[in-house]
UniProtKB/TrEMBL annotation, chain A:
Molecular function terms from GO: NADH dehydrogenase (ubiquinone) activity; oxidoreductase activity
Ranges that cross the membrane: 6-22, 29-49, 69-93, 105-123, 129-147, 159-178, 198-222, 234-255, 261-281, 293-313, 325-350, 371-388, 408-429, 450-471
EC number(s) per entry: 1.6.99.5
Protein name per UniProt: NADH dehydrogenase (Quinone)
UniProt lineage: Bacteria, Pseudomonadati, Pseudomonadota, Gammaproteobacteria, Chromatiales
TrEMBL record, chain B:
GO molecular function, a single term: oxidoreductase activity
Assigned protein family: Belongs to the CPA3 antiporters (TC 2.A.63) subunit D family.
UniProt organism field: Thiorhodococcus drewsii AZ1
Group of enzyme by EC: oxidoreductase
Membrane topology designation: Multi-pass membrane protein
Main location: membrane
Cell location: Cell membrane; Membrane
Protein name: NADH dehydrogenase (Quinone)
Automatic annotation (TrEMBL), chain C:
Record-linked InterPro entries: CPA3_antiporter_subunitC, NUOK/Mnh_C1-like
Annotated organism of origin: Thiorhodococcus drewsii AZ1
Gene3D superfamilies: 1.10.287.3510
Coiled coil: none
Family membership noted in the UniProt record: Belongs to the CPA3 antiporters (TC 2.A.63) subunit C family.
Protein name, UniProt field: NADH-ubiquinone oxidoreductase chain 4L
Chain segments annotated as transmembrane: 6-25, 32-50, 62-83
Record's keyword annotation contains Lipid metabolism: no
Keyword terms of this UniProt record: Cell membrane, Membrane, Transmembrane, Transmembrane helix, Ubiquinone
Topological type in the membrane: Multi-pass membrane protein
Subcellular locations according to the entry: Cell membrane
From TrEMBL, chain D:
Compartment list: Cell membrane
Keyword Membrane: yes
Family annotation (InterPro entries): CPA3_antiporter_subunitB (IPR050622), MnhB (IPR007182)
GO cellular component: plasma membrane
Name under which the protein is recorded: Na+/H+ antiporter MnhB subunit-related protein
Keywords: Cell membrane, Membrane, Transmembrane, Transmembrane helix
Transmembrane segments: 64-84, 96-116, 156-179, 185-210
UniProt signal peptide: none
Organism: Thiorhodococcus drewsii AZ1
Domain Na+/H+ antiporter MnhB subunit-related protein: 93-206
Highest rank taxon of the organism: Bacteria
């Protein structure tokens, strides 16, 4: 009996243990573990594709006593995105870190983070989610400090503390839920939860904790320094995956567990915070002096974008329109994941090549690395939401739903967000055109440039043109 | 999938794929790059030729890719699409030859020609777009592909021009997107059809339809350089001459004007648009733009700037044609889409030749240039006279049909506008011709890059304007021949107004 | 019932105290202690709900607390190590 | 200003506490809960201590991940640089006490590990005592807190999670599913896991206390 769900968590975990125990072969073993993890995730996705959803009772106990793992289209899609991004990050890291200390420290933590991510996306138990959240937070903070600079350690420490605060708020919520309903399984809770004060308190506490981890405005303050000072492959993973994981969990709680409690006002508040995040994050990204800081602020804005879906989603009745919107939300999250990872990886190369990443002085570097500049451009297209990126399709469906649900006031938010994103992306890209001599060739360092380029390309072209399988994966009409 | 379903996609890809390969080429592979460029251009023209033949014989060419439920990417070849696709692919072939000559010895050619190819792919995509979603997609891709060309030179001026270009086009794109999405929310997913698909909607939403029209118009008006959205066009004159030619005659401005035509005829339907009272504001906007552009052109000393303002003015003839209810005016507007293109590209090629050969950038430096470069100046004269509307050059045909259409629709004020505009056209073109032919040449040219040899300049620079000038004459002289732009425009008008 | 409320209430109050201290005080050590107090508050609540009424104690919250303690220890250790690293940097200047 | 901020935060936090107290006031009734089910299934777990049953049978997966959390903390600490040199060697009296206390701690740890199957105790308590032994040694002047060389430390630190996950995979391979112990083997599998976990926890805690990869003594293993 092959339990693909358990494998998706244990394979990266075993990889982490292996590279910890055998530090001499860290790179080879690490890449091998990355490939193996991708394979297990492929298995999960394939099974979800065929069967719709998966559930595995670990230890054979089953809910409510034991812990279960579960996968549906939403988690499978994010799992697959995480695996592809993580593989690209792994290949990139194998070329980015010079052999030595940093590499020895990077791989075990990185594989642990991946295991935590898969664990989080597959968990069906609220307390188990707490453990995966903590594992994710600890590994993320430790990885963020890997550059060893004072700024990085300081930012990561803050990240760690904020993450702990978020986890504790979440845990208190879990304790309240167990008090009231006597179970930790999400499906059972979803059936049991009633609109009453204790469930409402749990929702508020857990949402607040997760919003802190997802860096939702105004709780985003820790993100930019932490993401901007981490080594490039880590920044990519933090911005593309870790933050998304917290948002995913929040979405799961709102849609699956607490659905009876979610009022239009609560969803509207999330949308409002999202709108503020779009404005503030984009504005700061536009004013950022450093490329990686710009990318980090852009993440704040993108999380805001995702929150804009919530009020519209709650306003729509169950049916095709709501399903389309849910897929659009997923598509947006996936696109941003690929795009942000590609952007950070490319930014890392620029930083390494130029010795800095001040946007105003990037001219020559951009000119010498066409492939990397292209990656930034393609990722930028996806961040702005221009066609044919996945976020364009997502934005189109979002705007259509906004109009159909009569909440037209989100339209200006979306437009302003788009234009500000265009402004900060092209502020960087315009540095690529200057009087420097001709570049030597398109790709100069395949091992690092190609992963970034592929990620960016996926976000800018592939996802938008080939989004239809997502409907099928989520089990909705309108798929293939 | 049979071939008819693939052809539109293949036509778009025929320049896209060479473009991608060109990016990957080493900078030194000039020959291979040239071969790729020319192959793509020639294949595209041939394929479009096949399509013309097919459309004429009633084939339906349609590529459809479903992005999401209700979101179809549709490439569909109707008569209007084929008209624009032919224009852009033929002119692209000519421009490619010109650009290869023009950019010899300059840096970053892989990047330039890569985006150059993407640009024309996007334009053909705009031409063949079968619904608003597809139109928006290629319209935005066009912005993305042209920005690097505008900023290509990398000078502070070019960077600034690029920035302004982006600011306008991105803003316009956002408004267009709102309009398109809003429209879809009202009407559901709909493809372009002759006569539009909105007239069946409930009168309650007519108010919304009016608002949507202005969103769409604002988005399209930016690229079509309608006043007051034209500010980017003169600024982007910093780009190399082939790019200017492309922007003004083939791609960007044309895409905007083409979009207006599409929205008026195939989304709203000209009759329904008239019923909603949308045509009058469009006509007023076009009129203002025509007069303003011509007026500004009068005062410019920079040759390319003068041409740029002339474009602002001339492109609005197309919008003007669309704003008059009646088949003859429609013919005039649509045919001007082609005629303006071939005339304006001739002028830009010539301007590039003057700059590249003699370093002449300003009108005031053009004294006697006709004696040094008679062939180029001949081509320039054909284009300029055509713009004024002198028979038998193409521009005359457009203006004639516009005027007739105005009479048919009892819109006599249009005649006045046409007369005034032609006077202004003459006012800024004739002095150039006078200087070029009748003033004595200076002792030294500002910067003589290419000495006079067997030809007055390089062959790759000389032939393109001569060819396009010939087009201008042929399109005017043989306007009544089958497959002429005029015949094609007549076909379109007949389908729009129906039996 | 009353005892449970007493213990559980104490947990809530510990949590609130910790939260307040975390938000108000700057130094790392105080923040860390505050977090641990918050954690203890949650554990307190869990222990309290494990023993409601006269029934046998519920082992599930107990196990959750044990797991939670190990997680808290790990996180505290990492945070302390980072803090020490920063102080070493200060000393080196 | 600052004082005002403190007060505002205090007021808000106080309100939160009051709200939660009000919410909790009438839900602290005996039901619903998992205890009955857990006690009822206990004979099938292979242990008779209900808490150990939850930790290593019902919710074994949590415990596995928790060992990973512990490992992550240690890896993070190691990545931050070398450890500080440590303390002065202890004086005679302290050394004598250490000689007494450390074996006692190890012995007690072993006992707690064994007893965990049927009474309060288990891997965490035992591991904590082992870690404490390391702390005592380090305080008494042993820079490496009595730990073996770094390569061995690495292997010991992963031993708990590795045994755990390998058992899980083995049960999956034998067809019972991930971490589903066959009843006949359950007791011994749990004991194996707990033993490995105890060692790993002890080593990890002690190594975390050292606070970085120890400076190698000359002639010994280098920093990896």
């Amino acid at each position: 009996m092959l339990d693909s769900l358990a494998l998706a968590v244990s394979v990266p975990l075993i990889g982490a243990l292996l590279v910890t125990a055998v530090p001499g072969r860290v790179q080879g073993l690490g890449l091998l573990a990355a490939l193996a993890t991708l394979a297990t995730v492929g298995l999960v996705t394939a099974e979800v594709w065929q069967q719709g959803s998966l559930r595995s009772d670990l230890g054979g106990w089953g809910a409510p006593l034991g812990i279960s793992l579960a996968a549906d289209g939403l988690s499978a899609a994010l799992l697959a995105m995480a695996a592809l991004v993580a593989l690209a990050v792994s290949v990139y890291a194998s070329g980015y870190f010079s052999r030595g200390e940093t590499e020895t420290h990077f791989w075990p933590l990185w594989l642990l983070l991946w295991a935590a991510l898969n664990g989080l996306l597959l968990a069906a138990d609220l307390f188990n989610l707490y453990v995966t959240l903590e594992l994710l937070g600890l590994t993320a903070a430790a990885l963020g400090a890997l550059t060893g600079t004072r700024a990085a350690v300081e930012a990561s420490l803050r990240y760690l503390l904020v993450g702990l605060l978020g986890s504790l708020a979440y845990l208190l919520g879990v304790a309240l839920l167990y008090t009231a309903y006597g179970t930790l399984d999400m499906a059972l809770l979803g059936a049991a939860v009633r609109p009453e004060p204790i469930a409402g308190s749990a929702l508020v506490l857990m949402t607040a904790g997760l919003a802190l981890k997802a860096a939702l405005f105004p709780m985003h303050f820790w993100l930019p320094p932490a993401h901007a000072n981490a080594p490039a492959p880590v920044s990519a993973a933090l911005s593309a995956l870790v933050v998304k994981a917290a948002f995913y969990l929040m979405l799961r709680l709102w849609l699956d567990v607490f659905a009876p409690l979610v009022t239009p006002w609560a969803a509207g508040l999330m949308g409002l915070l999202g709108a503020l995040a779009v404005f503030w994050g984009s504005w700061r990204a536009l004013r950022a002096e450093r490329l990686k800081l710009m990318a980090a602020y852009s993440t704040v804005a993108q999380i805001g974008y995702l929150c804009l879906f919530l009020p519209v989603l709650t306003a729509l009745p169950a049916g095709d329109a709501r399903e389309d919107l849910l897929v659009a939300l997923l598509l947006m999250a996936l696109t941003h994941g690929f795009a942000k990872a590609g952007l950070f990886l490319a930014a890392g190369l620029v930083q390494r090549s130029a010795g800095h990443d001040r946007i105003d002085d990037l001219g020559g570097t951009a000119q010498h690395m066409p492939a990397t500049t292209f990656s930034i451009g393609l990722a930028g297209i996806a961040l702005i939401g221009l066609p044919p990126s996945g976020s364009f399709v997502g934005k189109w469906i979002l705007m259509r739903s906004v109009i159909e649900s009569g909440q037209w006031w989100w339209i200006p938010v979306i437009l302003v967000g788009t234009l500000l994103a265009a402004a900060y992306v092209f502020r960087v890209l315009s540095r690529a055109f200057n009087l420097e001599p001709t570049p030597r060739r398109f790709v100069t360092q395949a091992r690092t440039e190609v992963p970034a380029l592929l990620l960016a390309l996926t976000s800018a072209a592939v996802l938008g043109l080939a989004a239809r399988p997502l409907w099928r994966l989520l089990g909705f009409e309108g798929g293939l | 999938m049979n071939l008819d379903q693939l052809l539109p996609a293949v036509i778009v890809l025929s320049s896209f794929l060479p473009g991608v390969f060109i990016f990957l080429l080493k900078e030194e592979s000039h020959l291979l790059r040239g071969v790729l460029n020319m192959t793509g251009a020639i294949v595209k023209v041939l394929l479009v030729g096949v399509m013309i033949w097919g459309v004429f014989h009633g084939h339906v060419y349609e590529t459809r890719l479903t992005l999401a439920p209700g979101l179809d990417l549709v490439l569909h070849a109707d008569a209007l699409a084929v008209l624009f696709a032919t224009l852009s692919s033929v002119l692209w072939l000519v421009t490619t030859i010109y650009a290869i000559g023009y950019l010899e010895h300059s840096p970053n050619r892989s990047r330039f020609f890569g985006f150059f190819s993407l640009c024309v792919s996007a334009t053909v995509g705009v031409a063949l777009a079968g619904n608003l979603l597809t139109f928006v997609v290629f319209y935005e891709v066009l912005t993305l592909a042209t920005y690097p060309l505008v900023a290509h030179r990398g000078t502070p001026d070019a960077t600034r021009g690029g920035k302004i270009y982006l600011a306008y086009t991105m803003g316009g794109g956002a408004l267009l997107l709102v309009g398109a999405v809003w429209l879809q929310a009202l009407s559901g997913p709909s493809d372009f059809v002759h006569g539009g698909f909105l007239s069946g909607l409930h009168p309650d939403v007519w108010g919304q339809l009016v608002a949507i029209f202005f969103f769409l118009l604002a988005g399209l008006g930016v690229k079509a350089a309608l006043v007051p959205l034209h500010g980017w066009l003169p600024q982007s004159m910093v780009a190399p001459a082939p790019v200017s030619a492309l922007l003004h005659a083939v791609a960007v401005v044309k895409a905007g004007a083409f979009g207006i035509v599409r929205v008026v005829y195939d989304v709203y339907g000209v009759g329904f648009a008239d019923a909603l009272g949308l045509l009058t504001p469009l006509g007023i906007l076009a009129t203002i733009t025509i007069l303003y552009g011509s007026g500004m052109a009068l005062t410019q000393d920079g040759l390319k700037k003068r041409l740029a303002y002339s474009t602002v003015s001339q492109v609005s003839y197309i919008a003007l044609g669309a704003s008059i209810l009646g088949p003859i005016a429609t013919i005039g507007g649509v045919v001007h889409l082609v005629h303006q293109g071939i005339m304006k590209i001739t002028l830009f090629f010539c301007a590039g030749n003057y700059a590249e050969t003699l370093g002449v950038h300003k009108v005031s430096q053009m004294d006697g240039v006709g004696r040094r470069m008679p062939w180029t100046t001949l081509a320039f004269s054909v284009g300029a006279l055509g713009m004024i509307g002198i028979p038998p050059i193409a521009g005359f045909v457009s203006k004639w049909y516009l005027a007739m259409g105005a009479v048919e629709a009892d819109a006599y004020w249009v005649l006045l506008i046409l007369a005034l505009s032609s006077l202004l056209n003459a006012g800024y073109f004739l002095p150039i011709l006078y200087r070029a032919w009748f003033r004595p040449p200076p002792k030294r040219w500002p910067e003589e890059h290419i000495p006079a040899g067997r030809f007055e300049t390089m062959g790759a620079l000389l032939w393109p304007p001569l060819i396009t000038a010939a087009f201008c004459l042929v399109a005017g002289l043989f306007a009544a021949a089958p497959f002429s732009p005029l015949e094609w425009a007549t076909l379109i008008a007949r389908r729009e107004y129906g039996p | 019932m009353m005892t449970s409320l007493l213990y559980g209430g104490a947990g809530v109050i510990l949590f609130a105290l910790g939260l307040w201290a975390f938000l108000v005080y700057e130094p790392l050590l105080r923040k860390l202690i505050a977090l641990n107090i918050m954690g203890s508050g949650v554990f307190h609540l869990l222990i309290a709900i494990a023993e409601r009424g006269a029934l046998a104690p519920d082992p599930v919250p107990h196990a959750m607390v044990l797991t939670g303690i190990v997680v808290a220890v790990s996180a505290t250790a990492l945070a302390l190590a980072m803090g020490r690293r920063l102080e070493d940097d200060d000393d080196a200047r | 200003m600052r004082r005002a901020g403190t007060l505002v935060i205090g007021a808000l936090v106080g309100l939160l506490a009051l709200w939660l107290l009000w919410v909790l006031r009438d839900v602290l009734v005996p039901t619903p809960r998992l205890a009955e089910l857990a006690l009822q299934e206990l004979p099938n777990t292979g242990v008779s201590n209900p808490v150990t049953g939850v930790l290593l049978a019902y919710r074994a997966y949590d415990t596995l991940l928790e060992l990973a959390v512990l490992l992550a903390a240690l890896l993070g600490i190691w990545s931050l640089g070398a450890a500080s040199p440590g303390f002065q060697p202890a004086g005679t009296v302290l050394r004598g006490m250490v000689k007494l206390v450390v074996p006692l701690l190890i012995l007690t740890g072993g006992y707690l590990l064994w007893v965990g199957g049927h009474a309060p105790g288990g891997a965490f308590q035992a591991g904590a005592l082992l870690g404490a032994a390391g702390v005592v040694l380090r305080l008494a002047g042993d820079a490496r807190a009595g730990l073996p060389p770094v390569p061995v430390q690495r292997r010991l630190a992963v031993a708990g999670a590795a045994t755990f996950v390998l058992v899980g995979l083995a049960t999956m391979a034998f067809g019972t599913g991930f971490l589903s112990y066959p009843p006949a083997w359950a007791k011994w599998l749990i004991l194996t896991i707990e033993t490995a976990a105890t060692l790993a926890i002890g080593v990890t805690l002690a190594a975390a206390y050292v606070g970085g990869q120890p400076v190698p003594r000359s002639g010994e293993d280098g920093p990896l």
